[in-house]
Amino acid sequence: MKEKKESEFVLKEEESSNNTSASIPKQEGDRGETSTGFKLYKIRWPICAFFTMSMAASGLAQIGLGPIMTIIQDIYDVKGIMSSLLILPFTIFFIPLIFPANYLIENYGIRIPVYIASLTLVIGAWIRIFVNTSYYFLLAGQCIMALGQPFVLSSPAKLAGVWFGDKERAIATTVGSIATPFGAVIGYLLPLPLISDQDVTPQDHAESTFLRYIIVQSIIITVLGLPVMLFIQNRPPTPPSISAANAIKKKSGGMCKSMKKLVGSIDFIWLVLAFSSIFTIYTVLGAALAPLTASFGYNSQDNSLFGSIYVVGGVVGSFIHAIFLDRFARYKLQYVIIGILNCISFALVVFLIDIKSTPLTTCLLFFMGFAQLPIIGVSYSFCAELTYPINEALSCGFLQLFGSIIATLFTFLATSMISNDQKFLALYILLGLCGVGLLCKLLVREILKKKRAGIRGTIFSFHIGNHHFPNSYLNKTRSDRSDFVPLIDSDDVDRIG
């Protein structure tokens, strides 16, 4: 009876694999070939590297003025929301621009969006050199750079899905997703040798020192942001996996239909809320770190140390989670671990930051970064699995969209509270948000649709008549074929679907 059920399952899968199998490239003997006969091209890693550099440049542009916000306020006599608007456009502009960005990615690939992002990044960076003519040139440059960011911010999962095999997707997605935080590390550290609290007077010296900082920052942004335009390609000559092959043939039905599916998925809603709870804290820290720490007696040099060590902890945590994802694919388990560590680390910061100990606060922020920032890469990978076959750029873009909306609202709220000497109230509200995020992480189900498609493609890769067999099946002797079909744990069946 059991054998009969298994054979029925095989026949059903054979029927669903007819179209896909015909597109599978036969690359026998190639060192870049996966176990299912798909070829992995060596250029995928240089493309990923230059794409990561471009996103790091965007992260530098977004965070590079944050650590010295109080210095900018003193030099140009701006306060409150006018100074916060140097950072907030990167979150605000994402909300309307994600729609044209996803349209371009879905219909024309990632090359055109990358060109748009790179050009706006470089143009906006150099417009800021006129800041001493008017503060609004600085604000305009930041806004122009922010206009291009949505065109690449939702692309890491898309790039990973198009260029990388099943066992590389999580690490490739993580590399792309932590690129912006890595750029933030540069943004936090760069002011240290170039500008300090003592450079706010006299006015001529302050303006020339800040201009020098802007020029150096713009050079780095240009060097990091432009090379990707020479290397970026929409897709390899042949797909790297069964899910990538399916994505080429199968359209998601258009943006409106995909949006309806996303909004109608309760698991996607839980995922959005779980992601937003931590992404909001990251956004608030970027926009309000300087005024927040200044209220506790820290200076701009401390801000650079705090911000950079926070992101370094996040990079370490992100790679650890990516390795475990590629190895074990336990998305929900890692999601819950992130939620628990996030609550613990943020609570420690809230209750111990008033001690005014720079070494202690530095260690706490490293732990908080280690706990929080992996949410970006894990969420992108989880989202791509949960919403398959919807385009990765679209699903991850909407994940980022809703996260940006929530983060923007809380950032305005927290900034207002901090400026009105209600910093602890702002911190307690964010701590409560951590608890809500942990609850949402417990509620989201682990349905790995993309992994399921990959397993089906592994078992059925070519057909003879109406029956499908894997390419590597041909290389086995008759006595070896009985143990070919891989066994899947019952737990994996429940998770994979």
From TrEMBL:
Q: How does it sit in the membrane?
A: Multi-pass membrane protein
Subcellular compartments: Membrane
Single GO cellular component term: membrane
Where is the segment annotated Disordered? 1-34
Q: Which is one GO molecular function term here?
A: transmembrane transporter activity
Keyword presence, Transmembrane: yes
Domain Major facilitator superfamily (MFS) profile positions: 47-449
From which domain of life does this come?
Answer: Eukaryota
Q: Which UniProt keywords apply?
A: Membrane, Transmembrane, Transmembrane helix
Task: Give the transmembrane ranges.
Answer: 47-69, 81-105, 112-129, 135-157, 169-190, 210-232, 268-292, 304-323, 335-353, 359-382, 394-418, 424-444
Fetch the InterPro entries from UniProt. Answer: FLVCR1-2_SLC49-like, MFS, MFS_dom, MFS_trans_sf
Spell out the protein name for this chain.
Major facilitator superfamily (MFS) profile domain-containing protein
What is the organism field in this record? Euplotes crassus
